[in-house]
Design goal:
mainly alpha, two-stranded antiparallel ribbon, 7 helices, 2 strands, about 5% strand, globular
Length: about 110
């Protein structure tokens, strides 16, 4: 189990994401501010990825795949190298699991159509 870390500094950095990712667009900057409100005081990398998913679903641009793809980049900008690396791994596992779920749903839909 990964160790939970304090999120105080991460929340501050998310609210000022442009300082840590100078090339970030307004959508990513707004997502960072929105995400900061979702974070508990302490989180593991897995829990951070979960909170990102919740924030994405509530964000006005929730269908924007680029935001999903930027989660590891955000983690690299606001966390230590070790924690960001763990977030990246957890995020990759989340995406792989989600892809399998969607493939299963597509197969089920195809079977129903036959």
């Amino acid at each position: 189990m990964h160790k939970a870390i304090d999120m105080s500094e991460a929340k501050n950095r998310l609210r000022r994401l442009r300082d840590y990712i100078p090339a970030c667009n307004m959508k990513l900057r707004d997502f960072g501010a929105s995400l900061s409100a979702h974070l508990f005081s302490r989180l593991t990398p897995y829990e951070f990825v979960e909170q990102c998913q919740l924030a994405l679903h509530e964000f006005p641009y929730c269908g924007d795949v680029s935001l999903q793809g930027n989660i590891p980049h955000i983690a690299e900008a606001i966390f230590s190298t070790e924690f960001a690396s763990e977030v990246k791994s957890e995020h990759a596992e989340y995406l792989a699991k989600r892809i399998k779920e969607l493939e299963h749903q597509l197969r089920q839909t195809d079977l129903v159509r036959r």
